[in-house]
Fold this sequence. Notes:
By secondary structure, the protein is α+β, with helices and mostly antiparallel strands. The protein has 2 domains: 4-103, Serine-tRNA synthetase, tRNA binding domain (Helix Hairpins, Orthogonal Bundle), CATH 1.10.287; 119-422, BirA Bifunctional Protein, domain 2, CATH 3.30.930.10. It has 12 helices and 18 strands. The strands form 5 sheets. An 8-stranded mixed sheet has the order 1-11-12-13-16-10-9-4. Strands 5-7-6 form a 3-stranded antiparallel sheet. It has a 3-stranded mixed sheet with strand order 8-14-15, with no helix packed on it. Strand 14 and strand 15 form a beta hairpin. The termini are far apart.
Amino acid sequence: MHDIRALRLDPKAFDQAWEARGLPPQAPAILALDDALRAAQTSLQSAQSRRNELSRLVGLARGAKDDESAHGLMREAEDLKTLIATGTAAEAKLTGQLQSYLAALPNLPAPDVPPGQDETGNVEIRRWGEPFTVGWAKDHVDLGAALGMMDFESAGRMSGTRFVVLRQALAHLERALGQFMLEFQIQENGFTEISPPLLVRDQAVFGTGQLPKFAEDLFRTTDGRWLIPTAEAPLANLVRERVTLEENLPLRLAALTPCFRSEAGASGKDTRGMIRQHQFNKVEMVSITAPEDSEAELERMTACAEAVLKRLELPFRTMLLCAGDTGFSARKTYDLEVWIPSQARYREISSCSNCGDFQARRMEARCKRAGEKGTRFVHTLNGSGLAVGRTLVAIMETYQDEGGAIAVPQALHPYMRGVTRIEAAKS
């Protein structure tokens, strides 16, 4: 959400920022609505003030036994009653229109975000590891089928496309990955483990920016709740409508949860395998900071996600997203892209974003210093640490041998009950 007072002061800056995201000028329409709302509020306040004055004058007239004046004042008060009702309705309508307009507009990109309309404008910041490239490398679908441990057919019969059934050692490896990632962020990076609800109300997904614009990307239950697309929604909303002491910031929260996405805009994309599914597991990191600390926190959070890939010895690169490719709620985003051997390219496995006060305004999440009266909106950040399914894909393809067996990364050995190599059962 945007600060209408800041927009009034510098509408040109807002339009320039939205233009960087590929949007036409928005400020003129917003300010026209704002002017109409303020005019309606002024008119309503004048009518209410006059009504209060009339009440006082009626009392004086009655006290003076001036019935004619009292009746005239009462007729004027009755007319004002209708005017106030109309004005109240007009104010509510204009307020709703203005709030809906502002809620549908994306965050403003940070000054150091590069220009660009799509992923071709993203800038590589660094890369780590040597990509695995051999002619005999199989993709994860063929590897999983040969092992007898990855079953898309059975998943399709019960759930449709973009689902998978994992069996035996691959199911174990997926579980080990989630446990390792969560423990890593808790034990080594100081995040607090949270087990959040998987179903949330409208206001929660509005707060993090999925509603109203991206409703088609979510799954909704028959009672009006939403399956979480990521644990960002429940984690960030833990500070909803609260004032947090700045002495207690930053809050660093992490959760391993299933995530649910309709992939409405991904028709025809990544239909093979586990890259893009309706249901997947992910470790999510959320940080709540004071405004002046969020830029440094984004660098720290990105390093926390990178460290998981380094520990798993998976080659990756870190990309700074351009303005046109930055997500709706974010002002600055780093994408981590892991090397996928069968595709001979890097694929996104984590996004780490600083949302500034954009989500906090939608959630009414504030902070204050002890002993001071004033409050400020917190800054919120989120990042994947990591997407478990895509990490499983990268491990299977990177750690395969020519015979189709998969070595288990050293970092996962403590979670695998002695299993260090996954291979098909001998017949």
